[in-house]
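Input (structure):
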């Protein structure tokens, strides 16, 4: 079953952990069907760990990580007063796992030529996360790597490469993508995604001698929705989190009523 929304489903944002993992994998699969035979797209996983003695989180890329929680027993009370025994609730301090898509040139020793970043909340919320993301983007661009950032989250602060003051008029939409070509980082390509419209296919630059390939974003979200069985779990009677703008909320209400979801 398909989403009642023609483009991005705003109710998927509250389930972004699963959506983010799926969309990176599906994007790699889709690109590998279209890339030249000596290029390969892979879903790359990295872990952001917030270290208190550094200005920003460091990134590690383990194949498997194992966390050990040592048992710390409660010592006896040095008091004759009766004290209630607490219930121990463990708050796991797991590192944040993030994913991106990297396109490698096999013939040049797996050199990365294009990076595709589907923004997560960690990239947009909090000074440390935004700082780490911008540093990572800068490192890719300074390394001569094409960089694509796709923002399908309304939550958090603006984080894309172009200054926010330039994103006005028809560029001021809830969702957007930005393509920065290593050969010409001055002319940034912007794809605005209004809520009522289908997500487009965007151009993915490769090597200078290669033609661009298309990444069909709507096909990715449709696949996420279907394979994640979100039609069974999303309650469209309530407003999405975060809430929509007044205009988008009115449009969504009409859309959901027409689809029999409200």
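Output (sequence):
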């Amino acid at each position: 079953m398909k989403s009642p929304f023609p483009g991005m489903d705003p109710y998927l944002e509250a389930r972004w952990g699963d959506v983010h993992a799926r969309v990176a994998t599906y994007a790699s699969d889709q690109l590998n069907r279209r890339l030249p035979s000596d290029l390969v797209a892979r879903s790359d996983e990295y872990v952001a760990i917030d270290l208190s003695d550094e200005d920003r989180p460091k990134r590690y890329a383990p194949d498997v990580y194992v966390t050990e929680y040592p048992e710390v027993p409660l010592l006896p009370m040095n008091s004759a007063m009766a004290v209630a025994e607490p219930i121990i609730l463990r708050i796991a301090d797991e590192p944040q796992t993030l994913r991106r898509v990297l396109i490698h040139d096999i013939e040049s020793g797996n050199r990365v030529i294009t990076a595709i970043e589907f923004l997560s909340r960690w990239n947009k919320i909090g000074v440390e996360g935004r700082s780490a993301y911008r540093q990572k983007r800068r490192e890719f661009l300074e390394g001569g790597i094409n960089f694509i950032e796709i923002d399908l989250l309304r939550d958090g602060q603006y984080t894309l490469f172009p200054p926010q003051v330039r994103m006005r008029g028809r560029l001021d939409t809830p969702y957007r993508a930005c393509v920065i070509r290593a050969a010409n980082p001055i002319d940034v390509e912007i794809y605005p995604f209004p809520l009522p419209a289908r997500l487009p296919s965007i151009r993915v630059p490769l090597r200078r001698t290669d033609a661009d390939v298309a990444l069909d974003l709507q096909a990715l979200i449709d696949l996420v929705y279907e394979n994640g069985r979100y039609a069974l779990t999303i309650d469209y009677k309530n407003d999405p989190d975060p809430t929509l703008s007044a205009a988008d909320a009115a449009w969504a209400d009409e859309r959901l009523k027409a689809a029999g979801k409200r």
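Notes: The chain is about 25% helix and 25% strand. The longest helix spans residues 16-32.
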